[in-house]
Specification:
With 395 residues, this protein is an alpha/beta fold. The chain is 36% helix and 14% strand.
Length: 395
């Protein structure tokens, strides 16, 4: 077996996931790279230390374990370089800190991940960055919001909780005409179903906590950049001292091996449940980009090659919406009540949308987000039926 990865260029996704990010010949033939824990790295001479004349210089700047994961992510993203950070939120905030400064104007999609909004409204504003939220479906119309000091446009598709689609290429083209950096949170689709850099994005963000890890026991994020923006991203990581742990990197790399197979199951089960929910009289709307009825379906079908296992639905409720949504979720037994997603177990959470500026909450009733895990669909459907019965009992 050769360590040369060129033969993988035309291979299928599961074949690539099985073989990227490892070089057995460098580790005595062992299939998986070892976990290298490191802070201090020794140099042979003072001159070598002064000139940093070796590949590894200190633990925060990478180890063979973290490099293996970065190499795998670069292979998936088509990126010039990847950094590893301790969480998905850090994966969003590090590039914002790296590419924005006092006096800059940043455009942030209004369907953004809630903790990202909190960071923008607190930390960025305290640092003197002007933050403006925009309509997710704006597309090339974002031209009207660009200013001479607009330095960054942050995108997320689909949007958190309500799954609005964005025309990423159109937004990127406008942003680049104004010399703005485009970042994208691509956690929902992963690089398997959407490759941001191929659509004009400069910085692709991914919460590896979710599908790459896949087992609800790791916090990690990756940030991947194109060639033009990689040097600054890498320098930001070094300056901030942000790095991911080698043990977590090892487990995420292991999770990548099965991510394609798991995503297929998540996707198939979620779409089956979404179509079933769409047929129910007690559901006002199902927010899933792969449904033909969804407003952003055309963009999803044009740009994405698949859908993951997370979507939402609007519970039809005339009054007592919050009480009904809580009763629904509390009655579930297979769907746990918990944050995050991408693991093997199903989750359900009532969605809070009160912080939206433009993309307001649906008026028909409360939104409930589902993370569809690896359980059997028929069992999950029965669990949801119990939820609907509980919600109906609330008057």
């Amino acid at each position: 077996m050769s360590d040369d990865k060129d033969h993988l260029a035309a291979a299928g996704v599961n074949t690539r996931l099985a073989h990227i990010g490892n070089r057995p010949s460098e580790f005595h033939g062992f299939v998986n790279p070892p976990v290298v824990r490191a802070s201090t790295v020794l140099f042979p001479t003072a001159a070598a230390m002064e000139n940093r004349a070796q590949k590894y210089t200190y633990g925060t700047r990478g180890t063979p374990t973290t490099d293996a994961l970065c190499e795998a992510i670069d292979a998936l993203e088509g990126s010039a370089g990847t950094i590893i950070v301790p969480s998905g939120l850090a994966a969003v905030t590090v590039p914002l800190l790296g590419f924005l400064a006092a006096g800059d104007h940043a455009l942030i999609v209004d369907s953004v991940y809630g903790p990202t909004r909190h960071f923008c409204n607190t930390m960025l504003k305290r640092l003197g960055v002007e933050v403006e939220y925009y309509e997710p479906a704006i597309g090339a119309g974002i031209e009207s919001l660009m200013r001479p000091n607009t330095r960054l446009v942050h995108t997320e598709a689909p949007g958190s909780n309500t799954f609005e689609m964005q025309d990423i290429r159109a937004i990127s083209e406008v942003a680049h005409r104004h010399d703005a950096v485009v970042t994208m949170d691509n956690t929902w689709a992963t690089p398997i179903y959407f490759k941001p850099l191929d659509h004009g994005v400069d910085i692709s963000v991914h919460a590896s906590t979710k599908y790459p890890a896949g087992h609800s026991d790791i916090l990690l994020g990756t940030v991947s950049a194109n060639a033009a923006h990689w040097p600054r991203l890498h320098e930001t990581m070094i300056t901030l001292g942000i790095c991911g742990a080698p043990e977590d990197s090892y487990l995420v790399l292991r999770g990548l091996r099965t991510m394609g197979v798991r995503l297929e199951h998540h996707s198939r089960s979620a779409l089956a449940l979404a179509r079933w929910l769409e047929s129910r009289d007690d559901v006002a709307a199902v927010l899933h980009p792969a449904l033909e009825s969804f407003s952003g379906h055309a963009i999803w079908k044009r740009d994405f090659s698949g859908a993951s296992g997370v979507f939402s639905f609007v519970l039809k409720a005339e009054g007592a919406g919050k009480a009904k949504s809580h009763a629904f979720v509390d009655a579930l037994r297979l769907f746990g009540i918990g944050w995050s997603w991408g693991g093997y177990e199903s989750l359900a959470v009532p969605v809070y949308l009160g912080d939206r500026v433009i993309a307001k909450a649906p008026s028909e009733g409360p939104v409930i987000r589902l993370q569809v895990g690896l359980e059997n669909v028929e069992d999950l459907q029965r669990d949801l039926e119990a939820g609907f019965a509980a919600a109906a009992s609330v008057r």
